[in-house]
Amino acid sequence: MGKNLREPLLKLLIEQKEGYISGEEISQRLICSRTAIWKHINELRSEGYQIEAKPKAGYRLVYRPDRVAPEELIPHLSTTSIGRAVRYQRSVPSTQSLAHEWAKEGAQEGSLYLTEEQTAGRGRMGRIWHSPTHSGIWMSLILRPPIPLNQSPQLTLLTSVAITRALRKQTNLPIQIKWPNDLLIHGKKVCGILTELRGEQDQVHYVVQGIGINVNATESVWPEELRPIATSLAIEGGRTFSRPELIGAICGELETLYDGYLSYGFTPIRILWEEYAGMLGQEVTARTGQGSVKGIAKGLAETGALLLETHTGVQTIFSSDIEW
Amino acid sequence: MGKNLREPLLKLLIEQKEGYISGEEISQRLICSRTAIWKHINELRSEGYQIEAKPKAGYRLVYRPDRVAPEELIPHLSTTSIGRAVRYQRSVPSTQSLAHEWAKEGAQEGSLYLTEEQTAGRGRMGRIWHSPTHSGIWMSLILRPPIPLNQSPQLTLLTSVAITRALRKQTNLPIQIKWPNDLLIHGKKVCGILTELRGEQDQVHYVVQGIGINVNATESVWPEELRPIATSLAIEGGRTFSRPELIGAICGELETLYDGYLSYGFTPIRILWEEYAGMLGQEVTARTGQGSVKGIAKGLAETGALLLETHTGVQTIFSSDIEW
């Protein structure tokens, strides 16, 4: 039966409500071996399902993680374009790659690719992005802004502001923005944004924005080296959060800010961004391809580049890692 | 037999050397109708083949247009990367679209997609690019430069310089560069370059550069409205040019300049560009998305943007149509 066992098994467990169902009964009803059941029970556990196994009584479903499937997301959506077209798969290599394909097929503005886990999620510059199952929001958003290529960095900043506003409202946590594409809580990374695009100098053809948010992750899901620098909303807030609800809130903020951006330009976004950017006024080090630059982070240029006041004057930083 | 008749028919005609071959003999040897032969003869004529038809004697091949197929190009190539991987199809909708697919499959740097005609060739901002059969060079070049997104306009300028140098040497014609992406002779367009890319703020993932050059075109191949503004090397030079030879020369200049660019940056390219740009020092009008700007064209910014000296100061033009 292989993969086809998962959904009927889950259905049987859910139907029992608070009761147990024996391995023998499952085996008879699904026409499969006890070993196959055991294998799938363990797979569900690894996805965050808590399933009790009691000798003689059988299996009982104790906790079901939330899902970001369209039917769970729609009740939380109040938008007209962002998130209105959705594709969902439980597990994918990377939502970015799939969304690029979708965009090329003509996906409408605001289309959203959602998943529970990525097996090959990626961040800036080909870095690995850890996307453990059910523990975060891993999604890719398709936009078609009528802007020239040199304004495209503005979109990362716009999305940073939208997510910050949504998460602050939903969690009351002190989210801050780190240029160019991270959100932090108490200096640890809770969210990353990867803006990829296809275009020509005169116009962006489409943008695919990867958004990764550590929502209900516990430290144990990350490799050792990430633990000192990563955090999640659950770790910081001391409780779990509903991912579909958060996605709904993010889509709402995104739509408001994006509509405003298309009508009034980048200036309103820049003002909000500067309010949420923890690094402004501080001395930072920007590591660029050409070496390191030290200076006081002053704010944003109109294109979205970072302005650093160094001892030789104001420098415009387009691409770099920032430390402070 | 349909499309399969074309190649054997051409082979028969070529084999006759200076002699005629009767319709009846063709019909017997290719097992096809006289009508089918006539249809394919006319198709070959529309591609630039001159085929004489003499009553009683039959058909004779008088002139064969050159082709840009790999076997004709290779003798003219002296490069190690640019043009070393080639894909060729006699007719395609657009080499750009096919090269994007190829780049995604992992095409190596310098890969070149070549064709005799495009049925849906495109220029900047989705404009139509006329690519009549055998009359020009229609090709797309794949590059993978390790540069951030904001430096990508430099690549259009680099390629403009490379093509200008190659064509000046091969034709002795006074080719000039018009920012951002055209080459002109006596004010008329002879070449356009379309730089499309996929990338993120920190790095370009790949570039697909469409290069269209009117080589042996006569005015009659263009629609009425293009005739006052378009020209070809043949019209200006009073003779036809070998397209494979020109492509070989262009690949050579491209490789030299691109290698230099990767080692020494944009400055040497900028100096050459300014030498070939007909518009420098002149008053020009830049029509941007936000309106028109009038000023004296002063040169290039380090990113490849155009610097215009207006009465309110120097303005940096990133995307616009230029008139002067």
UniProtKB/TrEMBL annotation, chains A, B:
Residues 71-262 form the BPL/LPL catalytic domain. It catalyses: biotin + L-lysyl-[protein] + ATP = N(6)-biotinyl-L-lysyl-[protein] + AMP + diphosphate + H(+). Biotin binds at residues 118, 122-124, 189. GO terms for cellular component: cytoplasm. Residues 23-42 bind DNA. GO terms for biological process: protein lipoylation; regulation of DNA-templated transcription. GO terms for molecular function: ATP binding; biotin--[biotin carboxyl-carrier protein] ligase activity; DNA binding; transferase activity. It comes from the Bacteria. Keywords: ATP-binding, Biotin, DNA-binding, Ligase, Nucleotide-binding, Repressor, Transcription, Transcription regulation. It holds the Pfam family BPL_C. Its EC number is 6.3.4.15. The keyword Transcription regulation applies. Belongs to the biotin--protein ligase family. Acts both as a biotin--[acetyl-CoA-carboxylase] ligase and a repressor. This is Bifunctional ligase/repressor BirA. It comes from Marininema halotolerans. The lineage of its organism: Bacteria, Bacillati, Bacillota, Bacilli, Bacillales. The gene is birA.
